[in-house]
Amino acid sequence: MTAERETSRSIDETAADWIARLDRGPLSAEDSRALEAWLHGDPRRRGAMLRADAYAMLSESARALGPQFDPRAFAEPAPADPEPRRGLSRRSMLAMVGTGGAIAASVLALGIALPAAAITTGLGEVRLVTLDDGSTVMLNTQTSVKVHYSPSERVVELLYGEAFFTILADARRPFFVELPGKRLRATRGTFRVRKLDGKPVDILADQGKLALASVAGAPARLELPAGSRLAFQPDALIDRLPAPTLIAPDLVSRELAWRDGKIAFEGEPLEHAAAEFARYSRTRIEISDPALAREPVAGLFSASDPMGFSRAVAGLFDARVEQRGDTLVLSRRAGRP
After folding, report:
1. pLDDT tens, residue by residue, 184-209
2. Which residues lie below 8 Å from residue 231, measured CB to CB, with a gap of 6+?
3. Cα separation of 119 and 126, whole Å?
4. CA distance linking residue 66 with residue 165, whole number of Å
5. pTM
6. Residue 310 carries which DSSP code?
7. At what angle do helices 306-316 and 270-278 cross, to 10 degrees?
């Protein structure tokens, strides 16, 4: 029997209780171990601790700031502890959870949107990022996003590249992916969004339902059910888009193979495969024969091994591969049509 998943409210209540206990003084060794174990469980717990600490700090500040407030007092060094203490203190807890998150939680508690945090991957890099609410974004090679979290909504702007999202439900803050002139809304579930230069925006709804709408406030919106795909030009109007296409589970697996460092092909031309490998490596595959470039390719290959792919293709089509610096040249053998 599967254990019931904690609700966000119960996590927040537990976090508030831990902050209250830390305010009373350093925890005992036993309680410190219990807190550390709790924090290393559900990924939402760390964010909940930071929010609870921010609210507590704001409450303390409201009581402390009055007509007699003198900011110079805060510049004086605090007196040293007369004796060493054991166990986690509030300060050490924040250091363990992350002081940057504490600042973020404080700003959110005040109701102010955070500055956008940019996350970028380099050539051949795949990176998994856990967001403040426990949702995750996996960035494919050469991808850049900006994260805008506020008290009213969660927004990730896809600047370029490809990203796979796993979204946790939050009734108070809907989740959006910002695209040129459009917003993709998710309640919960998993989906992939691809935005490459010179190519259509490509959305794949894996689990859960998505809704695409215009940022201009137009009433038109398009629903994407689980197991569907939609591709469109960035400047296309919502009411001019085609209906999403239902796709088979095996196609979903091929489209998401990059999460495991792979590239999957199912009959695409060799020139298309060469372009895909160029997204992951500085080594380029050049096909000198137009007829060879049109040959269909199928299989699962390592994204970081263009040489292995080229050798496999050369063996399959009785071609040869020659390395010239950072370029692998595929050509037909003499006498081949």
Report:
1. 999 899 999 999 999 999 999 999 99
2. 200, 201, 202, 203
3. 12
4. 46
5. 0.66
6. H
7. 170
d(CA 222, CA 336): 50
| Residues linked to residue 129 through DSSP beta bridges, in sequence order | 137
Cβ neighbours of residue 291 closer than 8 Å, sequence gap 6 or more: 332, 337
The mean pLDDT of 294-302, rounded to a whole number, is: 95
Q: Are 270 and 313 in contact (CB under 8 A)?
A: yes
Average pLDDT over residues 179-188: 92
Residue 178 CA from chain centroid, whole number: 13
Helix, strand, coil shares of the chain, percent, nearest 5, are: 35, 30, 35
In the numeric block, the tokens 């080594």 are attached to 283
Query: pLDDT at position 75, please?
Result: 38
Coil, helix or strand for 170?
Answer: coil
Tokens 């390592």 sit on residue: 302
In the chain, how many H helices and how many E strands?
Answer: 9, 18
Q: Mean pLDDT lowest for which of 8-17, 39-48, 91-100?
A: 91-100
pLDDT in tens, 72-99: 443 334 444 444 445 666 556 555 555 4
What domains lie within the chain, and their CATH numbers? 8-63+88-109 (no CATH), 117-251 (2.60.120.1440), 261-332 (3.55.50.30)
Q: Give yes or no for a contact between 293 and 287, defined as CB atoms under 8 angstroms apart.
A: yes
**CA 205 to CA 223: how far, in whole Å?**
10
In whole angstroms, what is the distance from residue 201 CA to residue 302 CA?
25
With beta carbons less than 8 A apart as the criterion, state whether 154 and 165 touch. Answer: no
Cα(330)–Cα(333) distance, rounded to whole angstroms?
A: 9
Side chain identity at 131, as an amino acid letter? L
41, burial (CB in 10 Å: exposed 0-12, middle 13-18, buried 19+): exposed
